[in-house]
Task: inverse folding
């Protein structure tokens, strides 16, 4: 397990790219490979957003996650954007979207199409629709199956776990 967390740490280095450089993302073909990312037990708070380029509300709220990433990048908060885009859309839609929008948060592409087998493992109350956001740290977990309409709304949601006023 320790080697896996080292690999995850390597995959989730700060993502930045020049205009001509390909965006970086971690790819998981199965939920089983991905699942440990939902249970990291350290001193960091994780804000995990499940989204897709084909989901209008998801795309609309992504700038708030990017703002959150930028605003708290020097603190123990990590934004992870988990794309549920389809395998056939990777080159045509997903990568161009990341590049065009210069996504800086950590990005994961989860390609496991057997959602019925793993949705409850993310949260038992998840109906399967997106966007959803999971916020967790070593002590607490929060889940919401809804979209955010501002950075303030997102910050208010994470406050019970991550004190946004404390440096």
Result:
């Amino acid at each position: 397990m320790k080697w896996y967390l080292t690999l995850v740490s390597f995959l989730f280095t700060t993502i930045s790219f020049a205009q001509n450089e390909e965006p970086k993302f971690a790819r998981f073909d199965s939920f089983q490979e991905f699942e440990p990312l939902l249970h990291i037990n350290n001193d960091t708070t994780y804000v995990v957003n499940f989204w897709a380029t084909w989901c209008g509300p998801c795309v609309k709220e992504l700038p708030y996650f990017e703002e959150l990433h930028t605003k708290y990048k020097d603190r123990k908060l990590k934004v992870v954007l988990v794309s549920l885009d389809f395998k056939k859309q990777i080159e045509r839609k997903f990568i161009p979207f990341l590049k065009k929008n210069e996504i800086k948060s950590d990005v994961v592409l989860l390609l496991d199409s057997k959602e019925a087998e793993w949705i409850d493992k993310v949260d038992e109350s998840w109906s399967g629709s997106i966007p959803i956001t999971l916020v967790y740290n070593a002590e607490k977990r929060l889940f919401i199956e809804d979209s955010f309409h501002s950075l303030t709304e997102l910050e208010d949601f994470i406050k019970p776990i991550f004190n946004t006023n404390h440096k």
